[in-house]
Every structure is written in structure tokens, then in C-alpha cells.
Amino acid sequence: MTAPASLLDHPLPARTAAPVLAALVLLPLVAAALGQDFYIGLASRILIFALAATSLNLILGFGGLVSFGHAAFVGIGAYAVGMLMQAGVTSAWVGLPVAVLASAAAAALVGAVSLRTRGVYFIMITLAFAQMLYYLMVSLKAYGGEDGLPLAGRSTLGIGPFAGPDLADDRTFYYAVLAVAATCFWLMQRLLNSRFGHTLQALRENEQRMAAIGHSPLRTRLAAFTLAGGMAGLAGALLANQSSFVSPSLMQWSQSGMLMIMVILGGVGHLWGGVVGAAVFLLLEEVLAGYTIHWQFGLGAALLAVVLLAPNGLMSLLGQRKARA
């Protein structure tokens, strides 16, 4: 007999995940058959931002930590790849781990300071660190300064005499991004359903009670903050590869705000919240920008409608539908 799932469990049933994964695998083939290769690049961008938004959801939705500087870790991952390429290191087997480690290390340092505060002070400290990193990169003229750093190309997957798949091809790059994003999403689900994930969510609900039974709020949250930073750095490394360009604007507070909107739009604390929010946000942006240069107005109106109709995000609509059935 299977034990019932608790409120802290987040199942990932195959009947939901398998069709989504199959559709994503077939998307480039369908786009190529219809002569719409543009959508392969758009889908890659959505997957990358879904990865970044999911990393923010780990600390915002499941940890209750409103970080307003999360984009800084995306930027660090992007700059790690850019700096390595400028030094002649193009291997993805080097660039991506370095990006993850650099972002995770930065997140650990920021978290060690900011997690000792609460509420608006935590928000302001994370924002301050992000802005410090932004102005640091603006001042580093060796890496493009305010103008940004163009990359010679995308990372390579070759090992020794073996060339490996060519990431310069958009379709190959899409499948590489899909493999990374799907793996991270599965690991995220496993993490949330582990003892660590349950502790993190329980701390969000009642910190005093968890501390009273022997759990360390700072240690648990710092571990989650570091993991989220590393995942955001991975998204930044992929974003740098996709656009072949790195800019300090990746670290600006507006980018952190955009990631937060994606999570809120999809559903704070929902496993699929970051993925759904990133997809809806970027598709709305793409569609509205095709009609008017004032697309931000339409995007704002659409977001307002979603917030009024589904205050807990789009994923909550699915929950309401199941409850009525």
C-alpha cells in the first residue's frame, strides 16, 4: 500500500512529465518541417529562463526568501564562460562547471551575510550585493565594461581527438539545453521531496518550531541559497552561449524583478511554477512585441489579469480545477 503524499511532497507523475518532454523533443523537428526555425531559438531561451526561474523558486517559493539579487548569479555564470573564452578556454566541460562553482561560491558568501537578516532587510542586502557586482563589471574595461563582452562563438563539447556535437548548430544547442534543464528539474523535484527539502519548506512555515526540535535555519537556508545560486549560474552560462554576448545588464535589479515575476506568474511554491511562468512571460513578450513597440503596456495588463484571476499563479488554476472534479 502506497503511503499518501504529505503537503511538503511534490510528485512528478510520468503521465504529466512524459508528454511535456516528448513535445519538447519533437519541437525542433516540427519547427524545421514548417520552416519556422526561429522557434527553436525561442524555445532554447524559454528553457534557459525556466531554469533560472526554477532556481529562484527554490528559495522564494519553497524557502520563503525574497531575494531581489538573484540575477547577479546568472550574470556571474555568464561572465565565467565569457572570461574563459577570452582566455582561450572554449570547452563546455570546463566552462559550465566553473560557472556553477563561481556562482555557488558567490551565493554562499552573499547568503552568509544576508541570511542573518529578515524581511525588507534581506531584500535590500541581496539587492545591494547584486548592484555592487553590476557596477564592478561595468568598471572592468578588460571585459567590455558597460558595452559588454562579445563571445567568439559557443562552447565546444569535444574531448581530445573527438569533436563531439556542434553546439554552433541551433538544433544541437537546443537539445543540449533541454538535457541540462530536464536533468536539473528532475534533481530539483528529488531535492524537494528529500528530508532537506521538507526541512526547508517547514522552516518557511514555522522557523521557531523547527529550531526548537534541533534544525538549524541558517545552515539549511544557506545550503538552499548556494544551490539556487549554482543553478542560476548554469542558466547564465547557457544564456551566454545562446546569445554569444555577456553584458552587465544581466545583473541589474530589473533582471531579478523579471525572474521574480516569472515565478509569481507561474505559481510560487509550485514545482512547475518557474517553468510555466518563464514560458508564459517570454511568449507574451514575443507576441506583443510583434504588434506594438509599447508591448510592456500589454504585458503589464496581461500580468494584472493573471494576478487578479489567479492570485497564487497559473498553476493554482490547475489545482482549483482538480478540487472541483
From TrEMBL:
It is a multi-pass membrane protein. The chain crosses the membrane at residues 16-35, 47-80, 92-113, 120-137, 172-188, 222-240, 260-284, 296-318. The keyword ATP-binding does not apply. Pfam families: BPD_transp_2 (PF02653). Keywords: Cell membrane, Membrane, Transmembrane, Transmembrane helix. It is found in: Cell membrane. PANTHER family: ABC TRANSPORTER ATP-BINDING PROTEIN, HIGH-AFFINITY BRANCHED-CHAIN AMINO ACID TRANSPORT SYSTEM PERMEASE. This is Branched-chain amino acid ABC transporter permease. It comes from Aquincola tertiaricarbonis.
